[in-house]
Hints:
Blueprint: E1 2-6, H1 11-20, E2 25-32, H2 39-49, E3 53-57, H3 60-73, H4 77-92, E4 98-100, H5 114-124, E5 127-129, H6 137-147, E6 148-154, H7 163-175, H8 178-183, E7 188-195
Parallel strand pairs: 1-2, 1-4, 2-3, 4-5
Antiparallel strand pairs: 6-7
Amino acid sequence: MQLGLLYSGGKDSTLAALLLEDFYDVTLATAHFGITDDWRHAENAATELDLPFRRVELDEGVAEEAVSRIRDDGFPRNGIQHVHLAALEGLAAADFDAIADGTRRDDRVPTVSRAQAQSLEDRYDVDYVAPLSGFGRGAVDRLVESTLDVVAGPSEEIPRADYEAELRAKLIDEDGPAAVAEYFPDHDQTHVTGRR
Length: 196
């Protein structure tokens, strides 16, 4: 069965791929708007993992709506959630039997509710799989430590290929560099450089 996994090149989506590769023909898929070429970081990670890679281009209107929500809310949660669901829709519309992401049990954002998962499955005739939904952050970190080579650091310094990077770039382009610090809390990101 062909499975498309939303992929950022980070530890969570990479661990999800490793958990699924014995059961599916996994393709790592990065959703993007064409705002930056950061998707290349995910493509490089996919090459290191020896897994197929593909891009899923989303309508820039999704990014505009997400940035508007971030401005209105004063924080990124609802904007990122909006993009994640649109990315899953884009992946579901592709030619996969199943779709997946790297959301964990204790993630605050993005999340996929049972109703949202069932809606995707019913409307697109695909299976939605969330292989990390039973894992907390500590368990993920321990599994990653034993299986993957990872670099970690502040969001601005770590090469990532997720839509958060593009939303940040859009905010900088429209509102200036201070906008990112205003709306996005400081947090570390990860980038996978290979398997152990």
